[in-house]
Structure formats: structure tokens, C-alpha cells
Amino acid sequence: MNEFGQKIEKDVPVTYFSLSRCWSCNELDTCVLNTGTNDVTVITVKGRFNLKSASFSCTSCGECREALDEEYVYLEWLPGKPGKDNNTPGTSQEMFLRSLSQMSTQNGRPCKPSYINPILFSKAYDENNLMRYRIQNEVLLYKPDICWACGEHPIALHVDGNLKCYRCITAKGFETDPLFQDIMIASDKDVKEFLDLINNVIPPQSKNKENCGAAVYQAAKTTSSSMKGLDETGLLIMSCRHGWVWRALNLFMGETYRYVLYLHEYAKDKNVRFFCSDVLLHLGSYKKGAGATSGESQEQNNAHTSRFVTTTKHMSASRRIDTFSASFIKENWGKIPRMVKGILKTYHTARVSVKWYRKQTSKLMDARLEKVNLLCEKGASLIEEQKVTLVDYNQKLEHLRVEGNKNGKAEEEWKKWKSLLLLYGYSTDIL
């Protein structure tokens, strides 16, 4: 709006951008931010904004130029080129390879857009992940399924299903054995044999007729139908209190307690004290020896794992297992440098919580004691009143015995005090 209240259009450059030194004359504080000639779309948490690129002019030498991509990146603006080819690197391997080819071409390496073979790249990528795993596991002796803080016997494990990690039944690919066979994700064959063993003892019924105990949650169902258009319907993942993924399995129907029981058996072999699950409703909080165990640690992992669905839903079954297994291993090892800091932070939080809970418990006990004392005082007062009433009653009876029927009111007084005696629960046998 101008000073006359009229709407005007004005080109606005990318803000929060400045240069401290001129690129030409090397003078300090001479660069001025101007509006560039290129259209730029800026996307932030506040929304999308159509701006102009940033350009700079030097007040000392008069040179002008557009801002470089490196300068945008340095100031944490990540430039993309969302044209019809969608060359922004993301979760799509195909678009990522196109971007690599374009970068090679721009840097003087002659190649076609399809210079990098997608099939060979996928195989090489998976083999590289497997090699890195074997180095960590067999040479450095890092076990991917053992948390560095918990050791081989964790105190608590939390199981939760992630139905966002599905795979479409129309997904194509070469079906081979996974490279990460039964390392992080349990073998589908072993899970099926376990489910068949349960079904021989407890035949599955209609999904609406049988629950695990008195639970009414969907995850507590004994059976569930498959989902239309999907092969694998999700993942059931188990992690410890530090977010370390211990084990997972593929779901071929909705989350049921039969799948949970498979991981329960795994946790039993690890001598886990607290097994937390939506099906079992056994949470670690407020139980002796559990400390501040929330039983919801897997929810944090789900926030990261769910992002893979944009690509894994179109993969073959074996490639999907390799992708998720490599992701779990990488995430577990990535937690190692942050584990000490996280444990110390949790310990500090626990100490503060202990002081707060002790203070709150003391307040509750004091309030309870005050209430008990008040009730005791009230009870003692009632007893004293009854004692006084009884003394008055005995004196009145003695008076009636002495006076007899002289005034003709003895019978009436006798009935009155007898009723009072019965009201307070005393015996009338003496009458």
C-alpha cells in the first residue's frame, strides 16, 4: 500500500541475505542487496512466497552480480529446480540419478541423462550397504541389534506397528533373496511358521468376535483382513528406551496380537523385564524398577521410518527389506555419538522428576493426615456428646425411680428417654 492507500506491486528479493566483502574490490561493508532478475519461489514453515533472486552492487567499485547457489546454500537456503523433469534430489532414486547426471554435464563431463544405469546403481548401493554392515559387524564387532546402553538384556522394549510402511501389490522387480536376510527384519517364513503354530492351537475366528483379553483396541484383534491393493501392509517394530531398533517383521494384514507374540518371544529370550505394547497394555511408567520408562519410544522411530513409503511402496519385497534394514542399522549407529548426552539428559530429568514427585507426595500425605485428624476430632466430639447424653439419661432415670408417678408424667418421660437411648444404639435391657 502506498501513502494514498492504493495497492502496488513490488519485486522483493530473498531476504536475510548480505555480503560482508565485495567480490571485486575486496572492500568491507560496501555491498548492497538489490532485486535480481530471476523469479524465486521460497517455501518456509509459514508458507510459499513468490520472490525475486538476490543481486548485489558495490558502492565502491560499482560492480553488480546475481547471488550464487553456493551463497544460498551457505546461508541455509537450499535451491532446487522444480521444472518438468523434477531434478531436485529427494527420496526418488531415479530423480537423484538424473540430478547426478546433470551435475556431471554442468561440470564438463560429457554424458547422457541415462549415463548412470539405475539397475546397476541400485545393486551397487545395496552391496555397499551390506559391505559396510559386515565391516562394522565382523571386523569392528558392532552388533546392530544390541543397544550400547542396554547391553544384551534391556530393561524394557516397546512394540508398535507402522502401517504407513506398506508395499503395493502392483510393485514390480526381480524377486531375489534379501541381502540383509533376517538381520533386522525377521524372515517372513519364520513368522508364518510361528503363526501357523498358534493357529493350530487357537484357530482364528472372525475378526470382530475375538480379542486379546478384555481389550477393545484394533491392535488387540486375533485376526485381521488384508488390505485391498497391498501386499505387505506395514511393519511391526520393536525398540528399547533409547530408540534403538532391536527387531522388526513384515505385516501382511492389520496389526494383531499374533504378530506381537512373535516379538514377545524374542523379548523373552532377552530377559526383558517390561514389555510395552498397545495390545498388552503393559506400560512401564509407575512400575517398580521401570523408572521413567514411557513405553512409547518407538513412536519417535516411526516419524523417521514413515518417510520411506514414497519409494518402498513400489519396490520388490527383497529390495524393500534391504532398504529398511540398512536404514535401521544406520539409525542405530547414528545414535551412538548422541547416546551419552541423551542418557545424561534423561538422568537429569529423572532427578528433577524425583524431587517434584516427592514434593507432591508429601503434599498429598499432609492433606490426607489433616483430613484424618479432622475426622478423628469430629468423631471424638460425637462420642463426648453421646457420653453427656447418656449421663443425662441416667440421671433422669434415677429421678423417675425416686419420684414414681407423683406428677403423672413418669410414663411419658420414660418413653422419651427410651427412644433417645435406642437412637444412639444403647441397650434398653436395664428398663
TrEMBL record:
Coiled coil: none annotated. This is CxC3 like cysteine cluster domain-containing protein. PANTHER family: CXC3 LIKE CYSTEINE CLUSTER DOMAIN-CONTAINING PROTEIN, SI:DKEY-29D5.2. InterPro entries: CxC3-like, KDZ. Residues 11-86 form the CxC3 like cysteine cluster domain. It holds the Pfam family CxC3.
